[in-house]
Amino acid sequence: MILFFETNEISPSERFGETLSSLKFQMKRRFNAVIAIIKSIEKQQTEPTAFLMKKLFEVTAKEEAEESFEFAPQELISENEELEYYQKQYKQSQQSYQDIKTEMTSLLKKVKFVRNNFGLGHYRLNVTKEELEQLKTKLNHVHHHNTPKTR
Known about the structure:
It is built from four helices and two strands, in the order αααββα. It has 151 residues and is mainly α. It has a two-stranded antiparallel sheet with strand order 1-2. The longest helix has 47 residues, at 20-66. The chain starts with a helix and ends in an 11-residue tail after the last helix. InterPro entries: BfmA-like_N.
């Protein structure tokens, strides 16, 4: 017996620590505290949030039920008319592209490189303020010519 105490480096007069029953009691207290916290969260956060969400969905469901959508009858067109329409739109977009391309080409011809004596050079655009404003307005209105009335 003495050999057991010496090899495990313990003294017969010392306590080994807490007993199994006291550890079991502490664990029960901890579990009860965790359960109380979870119930508190459920009562104070989850249930009110769920109630509000339920009410919100009920209100939106009523609003959706009240709204009724009526669509206007569609005009029936033949395949040839549809083909002509898309060909016309294609030609218009090609013409618009060519116009922009020529504007940009003429603009790039007006750009000159200016060499700086102390550092890097830079490019200068030789246009008047009015020409630049006209170009800006043309570019801003490129895609706005296709209104719903012209479709």
